[in-house]
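Pilot study result, target chain (791 residues):
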Amino acid sequence: MAAPETSTAAVPTLYTNNTLRNAFGAVLSFFIILLIGVLAFSIRLFSVIKYESVIHEFDPYFNYRVTQFLTKKGIYDFWNWFDDRTWYPLGRVIGGTVYPGLTLTAGTIWWLLNSLNIPLSVETVCVFTAPIFSAFASWATYLLTKEVKGAGAGLTAAALLAMVPSYISRSVAGSYDNEAVAIFALIFTFYLYIKTLNTGSLFYATLNSIAYFYMVCSWGGYTFIINLIPMHVLLCIVTGRYSSRLYIAYAPLVVLGTLLAALVPVVGFNAVMTSEHFASFLVFIIIHVVAFVYYIKGTLSPKMFNVAVTLVVSVGLAVCCAVIAVLIALVASSPTKGWSGRSLSLLDPTYASKYIPIIASVSEHQPPTWPSYFMDINVLAFLVPAGIIACFLPLTDASSFVVLYIATSVYFSGVMVRLMLVLAPAACITSGIALSEAFDVLTRSIKFQLPGVSSDAEVDAGETSSVTTEARNDEVKAEKPEETSKDRPSKKSKKKEREHVEKPSSKSKVKTKSEKKRLLALPLEASVVSLLLLIMLGAFYVVHCVWAAAEAYSAPSIVLTSRSRDGLHVFDDFREAYSWLSHNTDVDDKVASWWDYGYQTTAMANRTVIVDNNTWNNTHIATVGTAMSSPEKAAWEIFHSLDVKYVLVVFGGLIGYPSDDINKFLWMVRIGGGVFPHIKEPDYLRDGQYRIDSQATPTMLNCLMYKLSYYRFVETDGKAYDRVRRTEIGKKYFKLSHFDEVFTTHHWMVRIYKLKPPKNRIRGKTKRSKSKTGSTSSSKRSGTEKKNPWH
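Predicted structure:
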């Protein structure tokens, strides 16, 4: 009788020790998560520390301008705002054409801070919004991975996401773009979906719909969610994993999520009318058919069930065919079959280059190169396959979702370099799972083979607690009242007898588990070496991420820097040019430039632009491209018909800035030629090559873009050597007859020209024609009247 007393007394002690260990582990995990958030925030501050607190890139300037309007005018004026300073003379309805999530988030943060008497400017809030939400994204990654493979994998994945360069590139301080909050919304929506799938809670399903609504408000990439989740639901149904939890996780998302998405003005009825959403509705029908089949299976006899299944499947197929026919009828009238241009370019990578050059002209819409994968996710590219394998050991509903997520994100990132951002969380999750499993195996192998470790200590706390719990459950079951066994006494008694015979003792269970783990243990030397290699791999990843954050992705595009033997050189030409426009032009003057610089011109110079980065009107952009591709006189007529007073071009030939308008010029030709057929790309090429030297074609040498870029360029060094194209230009000495140079920045990066007024041109022609008869001069005057060249 002594042995049972000893074992019984040991149970509370083991239970107490395990409770203390779990409590300590929870506190430690909390502080690690907190430090990961601090790391995610601080690693993105290099741009502020090295440069200054300034908005980056192009699109963030529009978001900053909209946020300024929201904080000054209020939410109602924001929804009804018609912006007459963009897309002149068309204008733009801001409230109905913008994803408001980022703006409303930053505006709410600014309002809360000012309510607490923390007087931060709108610009400061916009600059630090992305680093703050990167910390939130790391915590959401922890929650998601924890639901899939436990807390260890969650902590590892969160640490990886906090530093991954692909995410840093779009979330540094000053990168005030939609992705700043959208990646957090994406991961948090996936977490709530997996949480609902694991628990079957309608509460989490409702939160999932709300998180999806926030994602719809934040970014057009919400279509990735509403297609990936139906794919996973369909995968679970096909593989026989249907359950009520799957239904609860999916059905409320489609119904409530679609209704909420339709409330966003920029989405509206597209939530039910475009092809990007049809997959969710089709799977919605399928899951209801499957749910009904499972329901009648539990209520009918097998014979009646077969008859009912035949009927349900027949009706279900008929309904599906009817829905598919309606969908085909709805999209058949559309030339793109209900898909947007960007969605078609993802499904068919050659579509944009064939039919929509405006999409293909954007650098972030190009396919990535192989080195960009190693730059943006680094060693995670090698850990992802191991993480996928770990997801199959064992395969659950949650881990199958992660496998599907990484597979689809790898494909989309291979089509468009911008979607490397979607790949980053999936790569961090799978890599975190791989590293966690590897560390678990290696540390356990070392523990089993350390000298002085007794056989009783080989069982970890988790196994002891599980055995203790099983023992207590057995005692509770044995002490159940007899009333519970009155319904089916024979079956339950037989079941108890079988369990009593088949169930081994707790000690034998412990020995069995320890023996299994001992068989899985690696040799001590191999375990130590492998552990050191993993630590070195992690150190290399940290060093690379810090370098990428400090050097590669911290420089704002509006302020350029370069290092040479003389030291650091700063090129602040963009702000210099916008400041000149703001102080030396009238408020109502119109400025023409390529669409890349439209947002910055309206935000920093406060001047009306013809086109900007929204690119919603291809004809308007083609008109500007045609003007830049035309001879000087024809270009003047086009700009004059649009009431343009100033023309801005970006030129990098003097300092070697490659992203100038000369390098973008062929896209202007292609986009302009797509609308106005008299612009032909071969006219600007010599034997298929794009040249600006003496071998360039006459059409190229006489177009407006060439003249505005290289006007007086020969005066810089006497040779007119272009440092970007690495050649001397072909036409060095020429004068402008319809444009006046009014401002050129210090490093010649931005050049601004003013259109000559038509009166001066008429007066000049009159002076030259004094020797002719009065009738001839009057006829010439009538021929120079202002007219629109496109009528």
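One observation from the pilot: The radius of gyration is 33 Å. A full batch analysis is planned for the follow-on phase.
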